[in-house]
Specification:
The complex is a heterodimer of chains A (about 140) and B (about 200). Chain A is mainly alpha-helical and about 140 residues long. In chain A, about 70% of the residues lie in helices and about 0% in strands. Chain A has helices at about 5-20, 30-50, 70-80, 85-95, 100-110, 110-130, 130-139. Chain B is rod-shaped, with a radius of gyration of 53 Å. The chains are: A mainly alpha (about 140), B mainly alpha (about 200).
Chain lengths: ~140, ~200
């Protein structure tokens, strides 16, 4: 989600601190993993917001060369990093964390329809970034 | 080639059965679906970032630091100087206990020590008892022989016990004549002896 190991570690640390301080607000009827992911994602969004401006990234700036096998994964990671934050969050939770769309909606406080649209558009963008030839190699 | 059915299905606007029926006839939707399947498969198999062995230690440190930051100043100071404060508390507790004892306990002089007129009054009473006892002894003791042996022995033991009690009181009073407690015991013993002698006299008579 953040694309950098050190940023991810900082985010995990911040999320745990927030979890520790706000555990009293946790409603025990809710799913704990959802609560934790929600905190985690908010921390990620905050981190990305702070980072924004320092490292502008857009889809147009990402160059995806023809590649095979291992390199393809790196390209996919870069392509995922290039997705808009909310879209990336939906895609990562859906494709990488393999969460259900309903749970993603709960975590990100979005409507289910929005989550579906975000995932669909994320896939469309990734399709566009990773050319047909590249995807053929992956297949 | 343009077909929006795949998007409709993905956004939940088309039923799965309907889409599957369409899929068998639409090459574009098949292609898009296959590509998305590959993307999802690749994403699912993305390598996990390397484990960060010090991450949890960092989190623990941060949590502890956070606790220290959010702790009131007085509590932090208390934690730092806990040993010293416990000692001070113990000394204060001891001082408070002793202070309370001295405040609560009755003054040693007034009730226990008889002085002046009170002492004279008590001594006068004792003299009265002693005089009465002497008079009774003169008349009662010779009559004791008239009692049966068991009763006589019983009264003799009782009188000896009372006299030993009187003797101990007099010894103590020789050292501390103003001690009200001993005076009270002495008066009680004298009264007991007087009553015993009177009882004896009645039994013998």
């Amino acid at each position: 989600m953040l694309g950098r190991q050190e940023d991810a570690e900082d985010a995990v640390q911040t999320a745990f601190l927030k979890l520790y301080r706000g555990i009293a607000q946790f409603q025990f009827g809710a799913k704990f993993s959802t609560y934790l992911f929600r905190i985690m994602m908010n921390v990620c969004f905050d981190a990305l917001q702070k980072r924004r401006g320092n490292q502008p990234q857009s889809l147009g700036e990402i160059e995806i060369p023809q590649a095979s096998s291992v390199e393809l994964r790196l390209q996919l990671e870069e392509a995922i990093d290039a997705l808009p934050e909310r879209m990336r969050a939906c895609f990562v939770l859906f494709a990488v964390e393999e969460m259900k769309q309903e749970q993603i909606a709960e975590i990100l406080d979005l409507r289910i329809g929005t989550v579906k649209a975000q995932i669909f558009h994320a896939k469309a963008r990734l399709r566009a970034l990773l050319s047909e030839e590249t995807l053929e190699v992956a297949g | 080639m343009n077909c929006g059915r795949y998007q409709e299905f993905e956004l939940g606007d088309m039923h799965e059965d309907e889409f599957n029926a369409h899929l068998s006839t639409c090459a574009l939707c098949q292609k898009l679906m296959a590509q998305d399947g590959k993307i999802l498969s690749l994403a699912k198999n993305l390598p996990l970032p390397p484990a960060a062995p010090l991450l949890w230690a960092k989190i623990e440190n941060a949590l502890r630091a956070g606790q220290r930051r959010h702790r009131p100043i007085w509590l932090s100071q208390f934690q730092e100087q806990k040993q010293m404060l416990w000692r001070i508390a113990a000394v204060l507790l001891l001082a408070a206990g002793l202070g309370s004892y001295w405040l609560i306990k009755p003054p040693p002089s007034s009730p226990r020590l008889l002085e002046g007129a009170a002492l004279e009054k008590v001594e006068s009473k004792e003299r009265e008892y002693v005089a009465a006892i002497s008079e009774l002894e003169r008349t009662a003791l010779p009559e004791m022989a008239k009692l049966d042996t068991d009763l006589m022995l019983l009264y003799r033991d009782r009188l000896e016990t009372i006299e030993a009690q009187i003797a101990r009181c007099k010894e103590a009073l020789a050292e501390n004549p103003s001690n009200a407690h001993i005076r009270r015991y002495l008066l009680a013993a004298l009264q007991d002896k007087k009553e015993t002698l009177r009882e004896l006299l009645q039994l013998a008579g």
